[in-house]
Fold this sequence. Notes:
Oligomer: heterodimer
Shape of chain A: globular
Helix content of chain B: 25-40%
Order of helices and strands of chain B: EEEEHEEEHHHEHEHEEH
Radius of gyration of chain B: 18 Å
Number of helices of chain A: 13
Order of helices and strands of chain A: HHHHHHHHHHHHH
Structural class of chain A: mainly alpha
Helix content of chain A: over 70%
Structural class of chain B: alpha/beta
Number of strands of chain B: 11
Amino acid sequence: MPSTTSAGARTAQPTQPVVAAAPVDDRSARDAPARGGTRARAGSALLPWLGLAGLFAVWALLSASGMVNELLLPSPLAVLKAGADEFANGVLVPNVAISLKRVLTGYALAVGIGVGLGLFVGWNVRLYNAFNPVIEALRPIPPIAWVPLAILWFGLTDRAAYYIVFIGPVFPIFVTTAAAVRATGRHYVNAAQCLGANEWALLTRIILPGAMPEIFTALRVGIAMAWTCVVAAELVAAQSGLGYQMWQSRELFKSADVIFGMAMIGFLGFASNHVVLLIERRVLRWHRGAAAR
Amino acid sequence: MSAPEATMHATPAAGATPQIVVSGLTVSYRDAHGGRPACRDVSFTASRGEFIGIVGSSGCGKTTLLNAIAGFVRPSAGSVVVNGVPVTRPSAAVTMVFQSYALFPWMTVAQNMMFGLRMKGLGAARAAPIIARYLDMTGLQGTQALYPYQLSGGMQQRVALARALAIDPEIVLMDEPFAAVDLQTREDLQDELGGLTAETKQTVLLVTHFVDEAVYLSDRVLMMGGKPGQVVGTYDVQLPRPRRREFRSSPAFLAIRDAVSNDLRVATTT
Lengths: 293, 270
């Protein structure tokens, strides 16, 4: 839709500034689906909630029918109550806080090292040739397989959890960054060089921003992995956090608490993905418009 | 007006030391067949402030020639010497305006222009008036904060031109800069380019498909032909620059244009 609109504007008045027209066109094009009918729009906005409501309905019916053991699948209400109790007892907030801290620390390390290393390795062919086999050998090892070693190295400490959370996202972020850097358009590099760019400017102002759209895709894959990893870490390698809490609840047969913990992780993962998405929208303003053409 | 003269080899302007000396330049690209030259044994010189148009059939190595002068590719044989120093890598002294514009899409118009100025060590305060001046010269007032995708093709080309000229390079290489815009815009941009470069006294090498464009803007037109490409003729356009639009319909212009067009046809079909 936007492509036809902006192309139309360009051919219609090629020499005259399309400056004023383009952004307007852009917006009207984006709003165009809305004009298709408010009913259709309201319907599509409801769909995600319908899906969720359906899940809860099936779940509630199943547990109400008595077909499944209440101990194995407690009702949604029982799960909510378990959560409220955890909150009231003061165990929920500290557990969320500690898990969040582990995710953020491990993820930040993964982003810093994955993007930083990916940038240099992707740019330098020799580094790439030296590094790539190592990465490809380590990459298939699932993060959970690092747990025993992490415990040996760091004991049952936060650092073991940081390490496991780090090791999951770092590979996709690194591999994607390096690939995006290698795919940088030659003409951007040439243009920058004949405008006087040195290596550092080339890396930070041309290669990195050019690779950003791909990097952000990896960052969103990575944040989901970070939550996967923190639970894996806390199930065995920690004495606190949401994963630890779930493990404890299992030992006490508190299945409602187990399910509430799962729901919390789902929610936190969803929310943190959304935060990354918001940052992406801000950083890649130029790309949304350029991609829409 | 003197009749167009075609010579087999370029003649350096009398007295002046050539700023660009291309001698025996051969550039081969490596491929499955071990390498095929894109241009072979190209020699010519350009004096400071000269505007040279380069025409020729597709695939005769015009772009390769520019890439070698810019330092993007290394000669397989021969040499490119600019200001007495062999070109080994790209620098801001020899800047290029690309056919694809090569504007950085993640930067606004002003940021695109600021890039080269910052590389020259200019801060925002000193760069601002330069940016404003070149935006003004190219008719881009009010576009500073826009991203390239928000501009038409003609305006993107103007930004590319302004960005290149703003860093005040000694030599500007242009690779079919106006190929992707319509006739009206192209003629406007040609006039702007002619006016700007006459003012700045920069040396310009303009590769183009359009014989009119080359004759209208250049002091001298080089014709390349063959595969691999070589210089097969040069034409002097002895008239002061910048030229006015009326020149396009003058007998002198038409005579040179027809001569170049005819030779180009011959060079292409043989």
